[in-house]
Amino acid sequence: MTTSKTNRRSPRAFLFLPVMLAFAVLIVVSLVARGNSASADDRLADVRSAPSPEVISLQQAWQQGRAASVLRKQDTNPPADPGADREAASPNLQTFADSILPVLKRSCLDCHGPDHSEGRLRVDQLDPNLLTGDSVAQWREVYSVLSNSEMPPEGEEDYALSNEDRGQIVDWLSDELNKASRVRQSERPRSSFRRLARYEYDYALRDLLGLQHSLVDQLPPESTSDDGFRNNAELLQMSAMQFQTYRKIARTALSRACVTGDRPPPVTYVLSMPEELARVAAPEGAKTFDVHDDDSRGQVRRAHLVDQDSGLAIAYRAASPQPTDQLPGPPPEVSTVALVLPANNELKLNLDRFLPDEGRLKVRIRAARSDNELAGDACLQLSFSAHTSNNANFSNIVSDRDVRVPAAAAPQFVEFDISLGDIQRNPFRKLETKFPRRDEFLHIRNITPTSGLNVLIDYVEITAPYYEQWPPASHTAIFFESPDQSNESVYGREVLQRFVRRAWRRPVTNSELDRLMLLLESYRGEFDTFEAAMLEVLATVLVHPDFLYLASHEAEPSAAAVMTDHELASRLSAFLWASIPDDELLSLADKGRLQDPDVLTQQVGRMLADPKSKRFARHFVEQWLGLEGLDNTTHIKDRTLRQSMHDEPVAFFENALRHNRSIMEFLHSDYAVVNERLARHYGIRDVYGVAFREVPVTAGQHRGGLLTAAAVLAMNSDGQHSNPLKRGVWMLERVLHDPPPPPPPDVPEVDLTDPRILQMTLKERIADHRDNAACRSCHSRIDPWGIALENYDAMGAYRTKIGKEPVDASAELFDRQTLDGMDGLKRYLLLERQDQFTRAMVHKLAAYALGRSLTFGDRVELENIAGELRRQGDGLRDLIHLVIQSPLFHTL
Amino acid sequence: MDRRRFLCGTGIALALPHFETFADTSGAAAKTPKRFLSVYHPDGVGLPVKDDPAWKDWSWFPRGGERDFELTKVLDVLEPLREQITIYSGLSHPAARRVHGHSNADQYLTGADTKGHGPYQNSISLDQVIAAHAGRFTRHASLVMSTNGGIGGPRGAQTQSFNRDGRPIPAMNKPKQIFDMLFETGSQQAAAELARSKSALDFLMDSSRSLDRRLSQHDRRTLQQYLDSVRDTEVKLTKAQQWIETPIPQVDTSNLSLDADPREAKLYFETMYELIYLAFASDSTRVATFQLGRENGEGPHDLLSLAVGLGGAHRLTHEVKKPGGWQNLGTYNRYQAQEFGRFVKKLQDTPEPNGNGTMLDNTFAMHGSASSSFHLSRNYPIISAGGRNLGFDNGRYLKFGSGNEDNQAGAGVTSDAGWRGEIEAEELPLAHLFVTVLQRMGVETDTFAGYAGTLDRV
User: Fold this and answer.
1) CATH 2.60.120.260 domain extents, chain A
2) Stretch A663-683: mean pLDDT, rounded?
3) I want to staple B325 with a disulfide (CB 3.0 to 4.6 A). Which of A509, B30, B177, B320 is the partner?
4) Least confident of A230-239, A353-362, A531-540, A651-660
């Protein structure tokens, strides 16, 4: 019964089988192994036999590892010519029979043959024809373990491969794999037609309509692909519910972008501190004090108004400014009378019930720091609250980021822009009765971490609904001035032509315009105005697949499916801006010039220089590293710290991109990119303020690269404890792109009720678990990567002890390489795994750029990019250019 | 499309006809509607300590065992319905056990951790989970009512219903408005909107088909999913149109006083219950919630208790230590139970049109509050009625948890020491009862609000 069950492979199991079996091979063989043998690869052997690796600096390791790169010396494969290739390509079976099979038999067959089929791999049963055979997946694993010198295991003298033999197999396999990849390229399923991911749709809508605020709250989150990406074509689904949500969002967005009638009267509140001081200090018995007095020390530590000339002051924490329906006039001269907000103090403004339901709330605060000597930033934060009745209240932070206050003695306006329709409002504000309470409050808070650093405010101006101009630019972008404006059938066509071209990122055909005009005419009678009827039509344009999807056409059957200029423009903007193309890209596409390599390079440079490219850094890094994991942890209580942790890898990546740094700096760098909060967490001195910047680190600070980022270490932890297993899996998936297979079905749970297990340290527990036959094969591959990070606790802080025990962060890889702590791990990666990491980076970036899973058919081009990147010096910016110039990026 | 939104604004979610579905099932039992009602009352119930003379008559919870329980004066009005009801103790939502009772009406049907202050996030309520399942059979997915109407504020809910994003669904409170919504014809405007939507969808289908011709085989599947979504939306719109054209059921309006105001408490109560009854009987909806007032008083809720000769409802809870205080609160709770009982009796007296028992047998009606004693968010006082055909075995007093067998935890306290106090007794998550209810209503799930599994013995 059991036997038959094990033998019957489920389709799912079969899928993972190649990977699993290769792992199992490695492990089991390495356990059988005894003794020592010389390493197979000369170049690698040089490195290994260098004087004890401990004395090699990481810098040296990096140089040696780079010198040893095989990828760097690999020839570039010629560009694809599928028609010719398919004819010409034939498997080189002769070499296999003559030189490969005998070596495999000698070195591998004992463990992977009829007697022992470790990992269910039998080299005698692999089909040597990679072009048509079904053993490609197994061959790729063989290629991988041989070129990484993972097999045969260290210390297996009887089975050791000579460098010559190893090279011969690797060369033969490399050729055959490339040929097979070429042949299979045209067979791969095309999935370049994909829906915009939620965040892309949000940016696209906002860029198209000129809106400030996000609208996609109601859309479900996207699922993540196996390699971590949320823009994967296969996973971007559509449902009726979702389609209806798109319709709803389109209408809301258009109603925010466009206006009707006269400018609505504003509600304006103005607070001038000189006037306030005069008002509150005037009454008989007002409790004023002199800031210079010794006994007013307690009072100056709380919010107060002060005349800086005379020192006259009075406590001031709340105000109820009266609304007017006038736009604010020009601000008064800067006054020496100011509100002083010490750290963690706030001004609470009662705005009563007069703010409109929708529209932008503009808050302008003229402010300055109290002091330029104190290090650190002074920042303001806004909250909105209501206290409707006893215990029925809320208070939410509504500013999406903390805004820095300018330098002392140079007050400037600090501005906030809040969408009133999107925040929690007091639902009782329209009541005619006074209970529950109807008023709403705005809180202005100084959230500087530096004690003693005050914010001085002399003038506050609050307006809603706020428009830069009337009608707003978002409106005139759609309903622009035209001599034909009075002729609806002509003007309607103009409006549609301009809008649809931008929304669909391509020229609109006449017949499409005809259809849309018919729709407009059928609606027109039901609406009072042309604009209202047009918005109905535009809402439909925004749920059309040409807006919601990155479209692709079917090429002529014979040609390699090369994209059109417009498709290329869309792919570029999705990649680098997470949005739709701007006018410059569209115009170049209209002229058919975007495919020109010089134009393309110039455009990529322009796009990377645009602030919208920050979206690329954010979304790529979040998905590549799986930073959403940080949101699923509960043990980081400090909101600022958590946010700083989350932002660090993004800032690191941005910094590397800006300076075209080597991608190897992701593995290790002699600097960190931190802000004040994170620097404090890392014990790095003299970093102040909320902005991230590059600062040098010493070896003793144990930082540098992405592996030491607190986000990575903290999110791969369980609450209070580091989790070497999670960290190991993360290393394999995200950094080495060598994901472990899912646990087999017969894996026993770790029984935490067993007293024997409870007494063990975590490392012992892992070792115990690994000794279980069912678990061994995977865990000996996973665990060492995580154990090497044990010097970092669940918060990502460096430690040398766990409880009272010294940290044991040394682990042995399956090939007997010892990883000794973070330094040992980095040294090993830099010495031995640079090529693998390059391939991993190329893979991750390409998968993100193309928005689909990569297949065997993509292998040749990926190898070309990786090789070229190594030759060009590993620069991150170069990598972006290489991906975009690659035929991969230009074909469907 | 916007009819949906329009209706949402009036307290009801638009349901879509599902005529075909009736054909899929067979047998009277399968065809009989399964209905759900939850009535919520704020301010909890009276819970004097044992040695208080008022304990004997005016402590809300019954005495005795599962079958041989004895009702105090608070609930004795339900004695004639004894075999139709179940009374529960020892249940509450764990996340809110330390939160002031004033802030807890919001989470009674959701079990969300809505906290006592600061940022606020709720989750879907029990009735809306059922409505998502049963709503397709009826014109209206659910009926959401309260005496105060609207949504109230965060931690001051005036509705018991929250959608799947945790946003409150506005409750209706004017009998006339509810009646019109249920039994008057749909608006012309809604019909015009539907027609517009349909022509937009026609355009999308047409225009996307030409895109289809440009796509590769593989990408066509992706587009097909889009087209299916558009088509499904079209089908839904067609059905919505059908509902507009489907005749509204005719109902007997002789018992209705559609102008009733909470000032006339008894009349208002009876009218609101009557509307629920009519909505169920005409199969206009199968899911309803009704909140009596809001926590922390004032507004229509107080009018109800003032109208029956007592003080403001919220004040009753504060004044239990005054002479006659326990009796006053008990009397008010008794009055609530009486109106609930009247509704239950009416369901019991109405046979299902298809002969499958009475309407009560196919309806699970619950009545309760998110606090027991003074502002104490524990040991919710809950009564349920009916549901025999759904698998509920009534005529029982079911005690859950341990350490509070005589319901004395937090009893007699009239200060913040109560809700701030240590949790003395072990209680079970109310969500387990909700899972039981969901399963018996035909929803395939094993969890609610993050709690897996049903409640034993129910």
Assistant:
1) 267-464
2) 97
3) B320
4) A230-239
Q: At residue A50, does pLDDT exceed 50? A: no
Model pLDDT, residue A191: 62
Better pLDDT: A535 or B298? A535
Task: Determine whether the interchain pair B215/A391 forms a contact, defined as Cβ–Cβ distance below 8 Å.
Answer: no
Looking at the fold, whether B223 and B99 belong to one and the same domain comes out as: no
- Give, in words, the CATH class of A267-464: mainly beta
DSSP string, B232-259: HHHHHHHHHHHHHHSPPPP---TT--TT
- In chain A the first and final C-alpha atoms are separated, in Å, by 48
Q: Which of A632-636, A694-698, A759-763, B120-124 has the highest mean pLDDT?
A: A694-698
> Which residues of chain A make contact with B194, given a CB cutoff of 8 A?
none
- Determine the residue of chain B that is closest to A512 in CA distance: B207
Letter string b/e over residues A585-615, b meaning 16 or more CB atoms within 10 A of that residue's CB: bbebbbeeebeeeeebeebbeebbeeebbeb
Asked whether the predicted pLDDT for residue A480 surpasses 90, the reply is: yes
Q: Give the range of the structural domain holding residue B239, as residue numbers without chain letter.
A: 185-247
- The CA distance from A651 to A644, in Å, is 10
Question: Does the beta carbon of B163 lie under 8 angstroms from any beta carbon of chain A?
Answer: no
Task: Mark out the alpha helices in B246-370 (DSSP H runs).
Answer: 265-281, 300-307, 313-318, 325-348
Give the model confidence (pLDDT) of A722-744 as tens digits.
Answer: 999 899 999 999 999 987 766 65
Question: Closest Cα partner for B451 from B90, B114, B110?
Answer: B110
Count of domains forming chain B: 2
pLDDT tens for A544-565 read 999 999 976 654 443 456 788 9
Residue B257 falls inside a structural domain: no
Provide the ipTM: 0.78
User: For residue A746, what pLDDT is reported?
Assistant: 52
Residue B233 contacts A, CB cutoff 8 Å? yes
Per the document, the length of chain B is 458
Domain holding B376: CATH number? Answer: 3.40.720
Of B150, B200, B213, the CB nearest to A427: B150
How far is it, in rounded angstroms, from Cα A356 to Cα A266? Answer: 9
Q: Return the structure tokens found at A186.
A: 């045209």
Claim to verify: residue B170 and residue B192 sit in the same structural domain: no
Q: Is residue B101 part of a domain?
A: yes
Asked whether residue B353 falls in the same domain as residue B437, the answer is yes
Q: Where are the alpha helices (DSSP H) in A528-581?
A: 530-541, 545-548, 565-577
DSSP A657-675: HHTT-BGGGGT--SEEEE-
